[in-house]
C-alpha cells in the first residue's frame, strides 16, 4: 500500500464526505513518483500555505510542476476549502497529461 492508498482506505467510512483541497492533493500526490519542475515557486511564496503546514511539500510540488496554479496573481491555494469537481478534473488532467501543465509566476 502507498500512503495515498492507505489514506483512501482510512476514509472509506467517509466516502461521501467532502474533501478539502489539501486532502485531495495529499490523496493523489502518491499516484506518481516524479514531478518535473516547471515553475520557480519559493518556499513560503504561496500566501496561505507555509512550509510547516500539513502536506505543504506536496502542495508546493504540484505548484512547481504546473499542476496547481492557485487563485489570482498571488496564487492563493485556499487549503481548507472543499474541492470542486471542476478543480479535481483539472488537477487530474494536469497530473496525467504533462502537456496541459501551466507555466506561471506568482507575484
Description:
The structure is a single chain. With 107 residues, the protein is mainly alpha-helical. Helices cover 36% and strands 0% of the residues. The protein contains four helices and no strands. It has helices spanning 3-10, 21-29, 56-64, 85-96. Helix 1 (3-10) crosses helix 2 (21-29) and helix 2 crosses helix 3 (56-64). The longest helix has 12 residues, at 85-96. It starts with a helix and ends in an 11-residue tail after the last helix. The model has no long low-confidence stretch (mean pLDDT 91).
Shape, please? Answer: globular
Structural class: mainly alpha
Report Rg. Answer: 13 Å
Mean pLDDT: 91
Beta-strand residue percentage: under 5%
End-to-end separation in angstroms reads 39 Å
| Number of discrete helical segments | 4
Low-confidence blocks of residues? none
SSE series: HHHH
Helix content: 25-40%
Largest sheet: none
What's the structural blueprint in terms of helices and strands?
Layout lengths: L2 H8 L10 H9 L26 H9 L20 H12 L11
The gist of it:
The protein is mainly α.
Provide tags for this entry.
single chain; 107 residues; mainly alpha; 4 helices
Amino acid at each position: 500500500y502507498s500512503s495515498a492508498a492507505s489514506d483512501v482506505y482510512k476514509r472509506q467510512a467517509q466516502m461521501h464526505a467532502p474533501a478539502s483541497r489539501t486532502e485531495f492533493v495529499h490523496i493523489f500526490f502518491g499516484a506518481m513518483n516524479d514531478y518535473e519542475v516547471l515553475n520557480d515557486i519559493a518556499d513560503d511564496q504561496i500566501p496561505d500555505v507555509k512550509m510547516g503546514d500539513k502536506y505543504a511539500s506536496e502542495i508546493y510540488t504540484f505548484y512547481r510542476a504546473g499542476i496547481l496554479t492557485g487563485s489570482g496573481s498571488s496564487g492563493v491555494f485556499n487549503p481548507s476549502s472543499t474541492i470542486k469537481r471542476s478543480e479535481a478534473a483539472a488537477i487530474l488532467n494536469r497530473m496525467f497529461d504533462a502537456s496541459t501543465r501551466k507555466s506561471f509566476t506568482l507575484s
